[in-house]
Amino acid sequence: MSDEMKYLPKSLVVGLDNIDSEHEVLFSLFDTLSKAIENNDYLFDLGEIIEELVAYVKFHFKSEEKLMISSGYPNIMQHRKAHKIMTAHVHGYMFRFKSKSESQRNIVVDINDFIKFWFIDHIANDDMNLAKYYNNISDKIS
Ligand SMILES: [Fe+2]
Ligand SMILES: [Fe+2]
Fold first, then answer.
1. pTM of the model
2. Which ligand has an atom closest to residue 23 CA?
3. Mean pLDDT over residues 8-20, rounded?
4. How crowded is the C-beta side of 7, counted as CA atoms within 13 Å?
5. Distance CA 67, CA 73 (A)
6. How far is the CA of 41 from the centre of ligand 1 (A)?
């Protein structure tokens, strides 16, 4: 499974196919953003990418939350809270982008920091714990 991942770092593969594939989509969007910074290329469609990111982040969080509900995951409150905080962050970037009051570079740099400091940490800890729990109960059922 992890061999098919082009953008998602191996260390962040949690071992649940759907979740890993969704993280891969998110990382491909992150990659587009970091390339924009590296090349100093402020894409005409940066707004579109941020919009896509916001929509996909929401979709992804919902999909994890469905899994938590269906499996009776005990840490759902804490995990949901983390999702809420991150959703507020991505909405903030969108708002800043739309308000056109600062440079696109600033916003993209902040999004990249957010990915490094929040998102990666969340996958490595919260999502990893969810996957462990889910795989553990699935083993017991099958
Ligand atoms: Fe999560
Ligand atoms: Fe996740």
1. 0.90
2. 2
3. 96
4. 17
5. 8
6. 31
